[in-house]
Amino acid sequence: MEPSGSGSAGPARTPKIGLALAGGGPEGAIYEIGALRALDEALEGVDFNDLHVYVGVSAGAFICANLANNLTTAQMCRAIVSPEPGEHPFVPETFLTPSIRDVLRSGQAVPRLLVESLWDWVTHFKDLTFFESLTRLSQALPVGMFDNQPIRTYLEKIYNIKDRTDDFRQLGKHLVVVAADLDSGQAVRFGEPGWDHVPISQAVAASSALPGVYAPVEIDGRHYVDGVLLKTLHASVALEAGSDLLICINPIVPVDTVSTVEKGLMRRGKLLDRGLPSVLSQTFRTLIHSRLEIGMASYKTKFKGADVLLLEPERDDYLMFFTNIFSFSERRAVCEHAYQSTRRFLLAHYDEVAPMFARHGVKLSRRVLLEKRDLWEGVGHSRTPRPAESGSAVVRRLDDVLSRLERLVEERAEAAS
Question: What single string gives the DSSP state of each residue in 121-163?
Answer without folding.
Answer: HHHTTTT--HHHHGGGGGGGS-SEEEESHHHHHHHHHHTTSTT
